[in-house]
Amino acid sequence: MRKDIHPEYREVLFHDTNADVYFLTRSTASTKTTREYEGQEYPYFPLDISSASHPFYTGEQRKTANEGRVASFNKRFGAFANRGKK
User: Fold this and answer.
1) According to the UniProt entry, where is the signal peptide (predicted)?
2) Any alpha helices (H) in the chain, and if so which ranges?
3) How many CB atoms lie within 10 A of CB 82?
4) Cβ–Cβ contacts within 10 Å for residue 15, how many?
5) What pLDDT score does 86 carry?
6) CB 63 within 8 A of CB 55
7) Tens digits of per-residue pLDDT, 15-67?
8) How far apart are CA 59 and CA 4, in angstroms?
9) Residue 42 phi/psi, 5° resolution?
10) Model's pTM, two decimal places?
11) Which of 2, 20, 63, 71 sits at a 20 to 30 Å CA gap from 77?
């Protein structure tokens, strides 16, 4: 390995702000802020979503529309088709 070209690999504190869960893992993510966690100071990286809050991992399913695209279009714009005919 060449020297002085690789980013620093260190422990970083990730915070899922949606679920309010902290993850401590090694990473090369660059951060400007630090936060104390379990008595030690770590670089801090906030996350919007992680495995703690993502629907795929939590098992929460969102209900999707069962009707097709054409039926959905006709439902929204079908009234306009009858307007022009007299």
Assistant:
1) none
2) 55-58, 69-83
3) 8
4) 17
5) 58
6) no
7) 999 889 999 999 999 999 999 999 999 999 999 888 888 777 677 766 656 67
8) 44
9) -130, 150
10) 0.62
11) 63
Running DSSP on this structure, what letter comes out for residue 42?
E
Nearest CA to 23 out of 8, 1, 42, 7 is that of 42
Separation of alpha carbons 15 and 53, rounded Å: 11
Burial class (CB in 10 A: 0-12, 13-18, 19+), 23: middle
pLDDT at 28: 94
Listed residue (17, 43, 46, 24) closest to 32, CA to CA: 43
If we measure between CA atoms, which residue out of 54, 35, 58, 53 comes closest to residue 45? 35
Closest CA to 26 of 14, 18, 38, 34: 14
pLDDT at residue 13, as a whole number: 96
- What's CA 37's distance to the chain center, in Å? 23
